[in-house]
Amino acid sequence: MATTTDASIAARLDRLPMTRLHWFAVGVIGLGLFFDAYENFLAGTISAVLSKQFHLGGTELKWLLASAFVGQFLGALVMGRFADRVGRRRAFMVNLALYSAFSLLGAFSPNPAFLVVTRFFAGIGIGAEYALADSYLSDLLPKAVRGKYISLAYVISFLGVPVVGFLARWLTPLHLDVAGFAFDGWRLLFVFGALGSLAVWLVRRGLPESPRWLEAQGRVDEADAIVRRLEDQAVAAGHTLAEPDGALRPVRFESIRIADLFRHPYARRTVMLWLLSALEVFGYYGFGTVAPLVLVANGHTVQTSLLFVALSYLGYPLGAALAVPIVERIERKYLVIASAGAMAVFGLWFGFADGATQIVAAGFLYTCASNLFSNAYHVYLADSYPTAIRGTAAGAAYSLSKIVTAVLPFVLLPLLDSHGGGLVFTVVAAAMVLLMIEVAALGHRSTGRSADAV
What domains can you pick out in the chain, each with its CATH number? Predict the structure, then answer.
């Protein structure tokens, strides 16, 4: 049987209970993800307000909605590989600092072009947050509870969606005069995102580097010191540690390239996850992008639409919370398929809903299902690759989702203008059905396996 001295770092991590440091990591990563969710839904939530503020035409509005996601595409692609090369922690610090700076600049935008540019660069910063968070928590958490506590981090994060909804409802009617500068209430939404993410950046300095990543880089002494800290915390809390699995060894790569993802044994799952990442944005970000505009197009006022959307957004943290007790009990593959089907059904109901009660009920159930889906998707993606290429792999998949999200306004807004919300959500439902088919055909099982046993 393996001893602590000759077992791999991965094997020693997998047999640990949750410790203080694990809990700290889940909380801090969740707070960073809070601002990712906040940012992702910010422009869509206040799109009707910005259209009136800047007198935006159709093309300008599409670029405003797309700009942050184009930046996120680049951020996810570049920073995911950066994290595999220089470490998860350093990448975390760079991306959140970049987002905070440009989000604050965006609050002082004098015109639409300036806002588009600042949102693009803020998007580069925040774009890798999901990939880095999934990779880091998968690296650090024990295999028996990995899905559960990644889901818990996302419960924290998705509180950002109703927060942006209710803040938008409260702040957008305000008009302030700050030192002679006409400061409209929507600008405070950007200030909140910038200052909040800066606070998280300061707290994140207390996170350790990923010990699995350090081991994969040959920095075994540094990895050992971090794991010993976790082991000491577990023993001090009264736990008796089982012997680590001596058969589990780290996977190493001489170089890290996108081409590695299409080699045995990863090719099939890469194709499946890239298709999944491209299709899921129609359901997940499609709602946040067009829901307020659908309601305005259906005759509701801007403020009434924001209220309906804010109430619907309450389903996001609830859906994430529902995933916590079941994500380790139901195979991720089947949870992804079932929750995508629920999104298709509730999306069609929202698209054709008539009356306040139906709109809010359908929107709430849709967002609840979408975050049950989202948690399963994030854990499933992180489960699918070994530590050495996890950042690159997750970043590539997320970058694809971001570029498709950037294209969404150019697809969905013309449909909304010409045929109304019903057709928009019919397209969304069709994308969810295609997603279900391809995951059922190509998907693999991942629940309960070590993060490096792939």
Answer: 9-239+251-442 (1.20.1250.20)
